[in-house]
Amino acid sequence: MQVVFVHGPTGSTVVTVHRADGVSLVLPGYDRKHRVPHDLAHFATERALEMSGGVFGAIAAGGVFGNMRVVGGKPRHDAAARSKLLLDAHRETLTRAEVLAGVVHRAVEEDAAEQAHLLVRTAWRDLATEPFPWSDDHVHEAVRTLDELSVEWEATGTVRVIWPDHLVATLPEARGVRRGRRGRT
């Protein structure tokens, strides 16, 4: 999936996502006060931590957040129901992605890259009871990637990236849907 970040007409970031199914969507940003776009932090963090159920993995699988709009292609006939099912199923991961991307974003904004692994681990303890699932190298990769993308962003006002195919959120089966033939009596 191709993702393009550009400066919007009001100074905020506009993200255009070109999904593999041919649908293109716009995700508006609300981050004029930051040097680095928050959605760019999501991209870098979720990719480095391989969070397929985060924002971009969910979008790649057909998720559409309330503030998004379709700008190209033809969505599936069941796109709204599929999106709801997908976003509901990955709600916990989406929350975790929001918090962790926020920490990585802050580390880059405040030039605190050397503290990022401690900050991310602290945030994780507030989110989950299970052990921290990533290495410090994963966290440093997220910070390094965001830092590199922010240099491009500041120089050109546009960043074009590819979301990896292996990081697409899984779609659970719809509850109450029966598959196959009914037995005859």
Automatic annotation (TrEMBL):
Protein's UniProt name: Uncharacterized protein
Protein species of origin: Actinoplanes awajinensis subsp. mycoplanecinus
